[in-house]
Specification:
Length: 145
Amino acid sequence: MTVAQLLKHDFSKGVLDLYDSNGNKIYSEYSNGYWSKSDYDSNGNRIYQEFSDGTWCKRDYDSNGNQIYYEDSTEYWCKRDYDANGNEIYFENSDEFWSKCEFDTNGNRIYFENSDGKIIDKRPKKSCNGKVVEIDGKKYKLSEV
């Protein structure tokens, strides 16, 4: 017996949605009997969801609310890391794909690399202007052209 049947829900009034005391949707049921239920952490992040067809997914979050892990019943998973500003700096998944990024102080992506071999490098290049080098005992001062 479903929750809607127990509550004698009238589907002519719409989907049955139940919420916890924090306003998080913890259960939904449709007139065809399909349902889903969810669990949340203390910050209101959905950490687990289960469906009437037997599928499920779970998520973990860091202290800033960024999703750092996802896994589902198809055996798919992914992991993410973030910098102090909430920018995603690393991603990998069960399909053996990965990517990594770097950001400047303004939050602009200045570097990207992934497992497909794609690289976008917009990092500022360090200048050698004014540096002194020694070749065969002679010193030379470099100047950028």
